[in-house]
What we know:
Layout: E1 7-13, H1 19-38, E2 39-44, E3 56-62, H2 68-80, E4 81-87, H3 89-92, H4 105-118, E5 135-137, H5 144-159
Parallel strand pairs: 1-2, 1-3, 3-4, 4-5
Bound molecules: iron/sulfur cluster (SF4).
The site of iron/sulfur cluster (SF4) has 13 residues, from helix 1 and helix 3.
Amino acid sequence: MADLPKIKIGWFSFSCCEDNTIVMTEVMNDHWQEWKEMFDFRHARVLKSNNIMDEFDIAFIEGAMASPEHVEKLKDIRNRSKKLVAVGACAIVGMPAGQRNNFTAEQKASIDYLLTRFGALTDVKKVSDVVKVDVEIPGCPMDPKVFLEKVNALVKELRSY
Ligand code: SF4
């Protein structure tokens, strides 16, 4: 394993509570020795301050897209990534982060000034509204067992190229 090139990982959080990030770091507590040999965390702000935005074998996306900047950043990540994984309900179905999409007309009118002030999208988008998603890991937050299974399957697939 140590002789193989490391798999380049990006971990990105958009509009959400970042609980999937916490789950990932909890899983890392048990697997850091093998992950250290296998993964090159190029961009993961929860793990380091010197983040590199070049190319990724696997990009993990948590959270929903709430602004035009989010949409552009997500497209950029997609262009740099072999595999893009949506983690958690906010990324996969846009909820609960996008609750304002279901507001009544009156409720929407009452927050309109905030959308203008913060340059937010009229409607919050899920990841697949913007880019192609290769793998989904559902849950709010995601299930650590499923996360590990999907990560291991991706490693196997990338190693077989
Ligand atoms: S899916 Fe749930 S746990 Fe994950 S970021 Fe959204 S609100 Fe938080």
